Amino acid sequence: xxxxxxxxxxxxxxxxxxxxxxxxxxxxxxxxxxxxxxxxxxxxxxxxxxxxxxxxxxxxxxxxxxxxxxxxxxxxxxxxxxxxxxxxxxxxxxxxxxxxxxxxxxxxxxxxxxxxxxxxxxxxxxxxxxxxxxxxxxxxxxxxxxxxxxxxxxxxxxxxxxxxxxxxxxxxxxxxxxxxxxxxxxxxxxxxxxxxxxxxxxxxxxxxxxxxxxxxxxxxxxxxxxxxxxx
Amino acid sequence: xxxxxxxxxxxxxxxxxxxxxxxxxxxxxxxxxxxxxxxxxxxxxxxxxxxxxxxxxxxxxxxxxxxxxxxxxxxxxxxxxxxxxxxxxxxxxxxxxxxxxxxxxxxxxxxxxxxxxxxxxxxxxxxxxxxxxxxxxxxxxxxxxxxxxxxxxxxxxxxxxxxxxxxxxxxxxxxxxxxxxxxxxxxxxxxxxxxxxxxxxxxxxxxxxxxxxxxxxxxxxxxxxxxxxxxxxxxxxxxxxxxxxxxxxxxxxxxxxxxxxxxxxx
Lengths: 231, 266
Description:
The complex is a heterodimer. Chain A is α+β, with helices and mostly antiparallel strands. Chain A has helices at residues 9-25, 67-87, 95-112, 161-171, 178-192, 223-230; strands at residues 30-35, 38-44, 52-56, 59-65, 119-125, 138-142, 148-151, 154-157, 204-210, 218-220. In chain A, the strands form two sheets. Chain A has a five-stranded antiparallel sheet with strand order 8-1-2-9-10, with helices on one face. In chain A, helix 4 (161-171) packs across helix 5. The longest helix of chain A has 21 residues, at 67-87. Chain A is globular. Chain B has helices at 12-19, 33-38, 93-114, 120-133, 135-139, 182-192, 199-216, 246-265; strands spanning 2-3, 6-7, 43-44, 47-52, 55-60, 64-66, 69-72, 78-82, 85-88, 91-92, 147-152, 157-163, 169-172, 175-178, 232-237, 240-243. A five-stranded antiparallel sheet of chain B has the order 14-4-5-15-16, with helices on one face. A five-stranded antiparallel sheet of chain B has the order 8-9-11-12-13. The longest helix of chain B has 22 residues, at 93-114. The A-B interface holds A 50, 53-55, 75, 78-79, 82-83, 85-87, 216 and B 7-8, 12, 15-16, 19-20, 23, 101-102, 105, 108-109, 112-113, 115.
């Protein structure tokens, strides 16, 4: 009878984290920024498989890493939100609860399963000063081990997080108009990937949570619209 | 579709059936007491829909009745289900409103999961399945017979469907009405309807038809000037669903319907 090799928990977790980080670093990063009318999410994505999606009236999702894994998380989020909104009220569907649920689920896989999820996600909820109790915009980042963090102004996910944060820390200011916010997001993505030429509009995926819209705030910008926004 | 025991499809209705049966609408009623309890639930009365030049008009009165009593004077019976479709409900108000709400969530859920909306025909078919699922409740008196209408961007026309209790779905190319005053509303629309109606003319026909239904059917609510309650009229065109403002309805009612009637009686 052969004895299994002893592997220390530290080593095991480190290996898993390294594996997940490698998987995530293979893909492009995503940045979410608050602008004067809401939140905009910007990703470099030449394919037609979306990385950003609508979860509920005021909530959006963005994921990086392995497509099949984060898209599954996106669908779970839609189901979670719709069931909650059906059982209670539409205003009871909150980004914080969803981000916590993601944190639990992703953390659970990280500790229990052999292979961790190679994903990082953003949950963004647009606030509206006219709605009591929903005034502030919220942005949460959940990483591959289930760590959750709360961000103001902007947040980023993906392999290039450090470079993105460095780029945005000095340049970002609140109250940007949409065009400036999208350009800043795009330029941050360029800087993070050590590129020099700006990314063409066809290669960008840009979605907004615009608080001025009636009902569902989520909107995907088409190529034409994006060209107009970028000027 | 189940993977590792979890529902993986794109239907909210099926998601509730498989994973949250406690939240499922139309509970399976049993026992002989059910009939007596159900006799007194509020019922919605008259709704109508017809095509006009730019799309489709959907309208409904505001009254809900419990037997011979008024249950509500300002019930909403026309609901937008997404940016380009509407449902109008008649029958037992509770399950009917629930069905309208469920259809809206269903269409939105599909759009979010799949990344693109259903075709108008697909939406109409989905409602058919919901009406069919309500059949056991309908057998015990909770009948729901909706109208579904919307703008078909591919064919560039407004389209409308009526349903029967078994979920039977019938597309109407011109007009239809449902509910206790539906017959009168339908006759009224029939006399005035023609292809390619202009917007203003369409509004007049809708308000007129509901006034006619209220005149003949005691369960249909007419215009209540004292309380300021008017029928709800919605238009669905290429630009989307639009609820016609109360002031417009009041103007159409006063200028077209009241004037025509007064002259006839004088």
